[in-house]
Design a protein that fits this description.
The structure holds 2 protein chains of 2 kinds. Chain A is of the alpha+beta class. Chain A has 18 helices and 11 strands. Chain A has a 6-stranded mixed sheet with strand order 1-2-6-3-5-4, sandwiched between helices. Chain B is 46% helix and 17% strand. In chain B, the strands form 2 sheets. In chain B, strands 1-2-6-3-5-4 form a 6-stranded mixed sheet, sandwiched between helices. In chain B, strands 7-11-8-10-9 form a 5-stranded mixed sheet, with helices on both faces. In chain B, a hairpin with a 5-residue loop joins strand 1 and strand 2. Classes of the chains: A alpha+beta, B alpha+beta.
Chain lengths: 452, 429
């Protein structure tokens, strides 16, 4: 979840508090939570099923299994043949897909509202009755390898990001890529996927979110009918894995066919754990908005437009996660400038905040954007389901989304200056550089460092 | 069979519920076409202004001009410099968007509908449309950024394949011309001003408004937008593209995956063949996880993560396109499978079961196309820009439902002739 998404997540809260009961929630006897947000503006509905299981729950040698299982979830049960799930959603006039992150795995369907019961029946069926067929696995693992080639191996920026995380984290499982290392995919078996499913896919490790033109009481009754018969089971203990403190700057270089260099500076940063008591994550969010929240925010204005040291420059900070946090500054130097020049310019912008703080005008502007985003967010039913799903996935209650918005609105210029001083610490910094290589494999002229 | 009956039943319900998007249409006194959909659910307003000012109107040798002109509009206009524009928009929580594609240049605004937000936001929008400054130093900066990103794109297998694909499909038509670092380097600030003066005019504009607004206010806003533009003349189109001859272009690249595109110029907007092609293509490669291409290339053989086919009708014949990425060593095998699937489909068309499934999805999913202001805006702006009938959305489901397997075979036979198919591969062994 990137900053811009998070801001909009935080925002949606205001209007949902207006109608206090909505969203509605119930918990079935097997431990499955069902959250319904009614929105009657169009005759459609969204169902999402979120499992509290992601790539951070994998172990070395089996990286990527959470995502592979996500693919296998479309390969059939005793009641629904391989490929039949997609067929039935399509026949219902629906769209479906799924996504796997470090923290969770989620599945969704968008359908005309009359089709919601069938979707609930289908999701309930595959929650406990999946076939993990060896032949299907054999084909699907090839598809996942193609996905890895497409998303990472042939994408220089993704590769750099993968390497950055492998260096920034040494003990915590966030060091592994979500899609998995290629070698782990090559050695993975259907039995690995089956074991993953049997261990983690139980109703007490999941929650269902439904938004749209529905009556929550009817949805609760359907949930009782389809999901309640599934048996819950105790989950294995998850060991807390704590990343040891970083004690010095780390650097990683990735060479790949490209034209332009990329610089990423990743700092260890705090994560929101207690919505009421924490304060630094909110201040960092507002700092990010002031540096990169619109076209004339500080990074674009100074580095791209005025000084022309960068073709682009930005910041990504995600205040919510199950694991440890990072804040990334990133950019591409302009022609004639080096990554060193860009690094110095980014550091100078941070130093400016540390020394002089931010203006009341800048802060007010960031808050105005927050408030407007709160309205725009409601234009998407899918987005509303996502916002609840995301915040719940890290163990924070969606009922407190409005409180998070309050906390953001209360951030002061002094708070922002304080976090700028506290977290941009070189000992907690990992620097990643994409060193672009010519396509023909021949070495570029020796002046590589000054080429850009 | 039972499932299909249920699907058909659901269709009736959703049609009844969706007598829906009421599009009001008029022409402003200054000659701009307007589409308006009143939607009072959320306190927000979307405005999109489209001009026939896409890359197809780039003069010969000046490829990239339409895109650079559109990009520079909000980088200084009237008395506002680029910083003032961005800051004032952010101050009221509004934002400007839009881009230039082959046919059109668009400028869009999303704002809260309260008057103290809406009025300043619209004022900036008008400035940007009416009085862009194209300051010389900003122009040079944006030119340099564009050239850098074009150079970067020329290292990416997918971009290389896409550019080569369009060039091969349209050898003698502007759709096939691509901006290059050289063509952009040759552009001047005056080129932008001249392009703006020629194409950003009322006769060439289509304005769409969706949101929390009365008809009377919509009329005032649309006229204020149009009145500040020169009356001008609508853009004139180049000669229709010719069908290319069968060809195969193979480009080298060190990537681990080959990128493959197969296609030809197929159909323009508003042509009645569109519905048979749409319904037929659902079975061939349009229906996401349930298409024949997906089944044969991905599910059965594990050749690709993504494989699809689609028709993209444009003002003039837009492409039919099949695309996939696969491990470079198996590109030949994957292309062979794609050709077999296409050949079989051209010969026999869909089965009855496939045809019913396609209709069930395309009609049943109709409510999902219109369940947000953003989606309504996209659809209605398209209708306005391409001059589609105002009841296009109302008729959509019936038009889909009326398609027969024979219609599909005939439309494909007319539009997708194997002797005109061009293939581009990048990084295939």
């Amino acid at each position: 979840m990137h900053l811009k998404y998070l801001l909009s997540v935080l925002l949606a809260a205001g209007l949902s508090t207006a109608a206090f009961a909505n969203p509605f929630e119930t918990t079935l006897k097997n431990g499955l939570r069902v959250i319904v947000k009614e929105d009657h503006r169009a005759p459609t509905a969204v169902q999402m099923v979120w499992y509290r299981i992601g790539s951070m729950d994998e172990v070395d040698g089996a990286s990527g299994v959470a995502h592979v299982l996500e693919h296998m979830m479309f390969k059939g049960t005793p009641n629904v043949g391989a490929g039949e799930f997609n067929k039935r959603v399509a026949a219902a006039g629906g769209r479906d897909n799924a996504f796997t992150s470090r923290d969770y795995t989620a599945y969704f369907q968008q359908v005309p509202k009359e089709k919601l019961p069938e979707m609930m029946q289908l999701e309930a069926d595959r929650m406990r009755h999946l076939n993990v067929d060896a032949k299907e696995f054999e084909q699907e693992i090839k598809v996942v390898m193609e996905e890895r080639r497409m998303r990472t191996d042939d994408n220089p920026q993704s590769k750099l990001f993968e390497q950055m995380n492998a260096v920034a984290f040494q003990a915590h499982p966030y060091r592994r890529p979500i899609i998995g290392w290629m070698n782990d995919l090559e050695t993975m078996t259907a039995a690995d996927a089956k074991a993953w499913y049997d261990t983690w896919y139980v109703p007490n490790n999941a929650y269902v979110i439904i938004t749209g033109d529905v009556d929550h009481k009817e949805v609760f009754a359907l949930a009782e009918k389809y999901y309640a018969p599934l048996e819950g089971r105790a989950l294995p203990v998850r060991r807390q894995q704590v990343e040891p403190a970083q004690e010095g700057t780390r650097k990683v270089t990735v060479k790949a066919p490209a034209e332009l260099p990329v610089l990423i500076m990743g700092y260890k940063a705090p994560i929101l754990r207690d919505i009421d008591k924490d304060s630094d994550p909110y201040a960092l969010e507002m700092l990010a908005s002031i540096l990169d929240g619109h076209d004339a925010a500080r990074f674009n204005k100074k580095l791209v437009r005025e000084d022309k040291v960068a073709l682009s420059a930005g910041i990504d900070y995600d205040a919510t996660a199950r694991g440890p946090g990072m804040l990334y500054l990133h950019g591409t130097p302009s022609e004639g400038k080096t990554v060193g020049d860009l690094e110095a310019a980014l550091r100078a912008e941070i130093a400016r905040v540390q020394k002089d703080g931010v203006s009341e005008q800048e802060l007010k502007r960031a808050k105005a954007q927050l408030i407007a985003g709160q309205v725009y967010k409601l234009d998407s039913m899918f987005g509303q389901a996502m916002e609840i799903g995301q915040i719940e996935s890290v163990g924070l209650p969606y009922r407190k989304l409005d409180r998070m918005l309050d906390k953001l609105q209360k951030v002061s210029a002094a708070d922002i200056q304080a976090v700028a001083k506290k977290y941009f610490n070189d000992d907690a910094l990992t620097i990643g550089v994409l060193d672009p290589q010519p396509l023909d494999g021949k070495a570029r002229r020796p002046a590589v460092a000054t080429r850009h | 069979m039972k499932r299909l009956l249920t699907a058909a039943f659901a269709l009736l319900i959703s049609q009844a519920a969706l007598a829906g998007v009421k599009i009001e249409h008029w022409v402003t006194p200054s000659g701009a076409r307007v589409q308006f959909v009143e939607s009072r659910v959320l306190p927000m307003l979307d405005v999109q202004v489209n001009f026939a000012a896409g890359s197809t109107f780039d003069p010969a040798g000046k490829s990239g001009l339409a895109a650079l002109t559109r990009g520079a509009l909000d980088l200084g206009a009237g008395k506002l410099d680029e910083t003032a524009i961005a800051e004032q928009m952010a101050d009221i929580g509004a934002s400007l968007g839009g881009s230039a594609d082959t046919d059109r240049a668009s400028v869009s605004l999303r704002t809260l509908s309260a008057k103290d937000k809406r009025e300043p936001a619209l004022s900036i929008l008008k400035n940007v449309l009416h009085a862009p400054r194209f300051d010389a130093d900003i122009f040079e900066r944006e030119k340099a950024r564009t050239i850098a990103s074009l150079k970067e794109a020329m290292t990416r297998p997918d971009s290389i394949a896409g550019k080569a694909f369009w060039a091969a499909m349209y050898p003698n038509h502007p759709y096939g011309r691509q901006a290059t670092p050289e063509s952009v380097a040759a552009l001047s600030r005056d080129d932008l001003a001249a392009f703006h003066a020629r194409y950003y005019n009322a006769a060439n504009a289509s304005i769409t408004l969706v949101g929390d607004l009365s008809r009377a206010d919509a009329e005032k806003i649309a006229e204020a937008i149009a009145a500040g533009l020169p009356k001008g003349e609508a853009a004139t189109l180049p000669a229709a593209p010719e069908k290319p001859k069968w060809s195969l272009t193979q480009l080298a690249h060190p990537a681990s995956q080959a990128h493959v595109y197969i296609g030809l110029p197929a159909i323009e907007r508003g042509n009645p063949d569109f519905f048979p092609l749409l319904v037929g293509n659902y079975t061939l490669g349009g229906g996401g996880f349930v298409s024949r291409l997906m089944k044969e290339v991905r599910d059965k053989r594990g050749y690709a993560y993504s494989v699809y086919s689609h028709f993209s009708p444009l003002r003039q014949a837009g492409p039919f396109q099949i695309g996939l990425q696969t491990k470079r060593s198996q590109a030949k095998d994957a292309i062979k499978v794609v050709r077999e699937v296409l050949t079989a489909f051209l010969k026999d068309g869909p089965s009855e079961e496939e045809l019913n499934a396609a209709k069930a999805n395309l009609t049943g999913s109709f409510p999902l196309r219109l369940d947000s202001n953003k989606k309504i805006l996209d659809n209605v702006a398209n209708i306005g820009f391409y001059g589609l009938p105002l009841d296009y959305l109302d008729q959509y489901q019936a038009r889909v439902q009326a398609v027969t397997a024979d219609d599909i075979r005939q439309a494909f036979a007319r539009r997708v002739r194997p002797e005109n198919l061009i293939t581009v591969t990048v990084a295939a062994d």
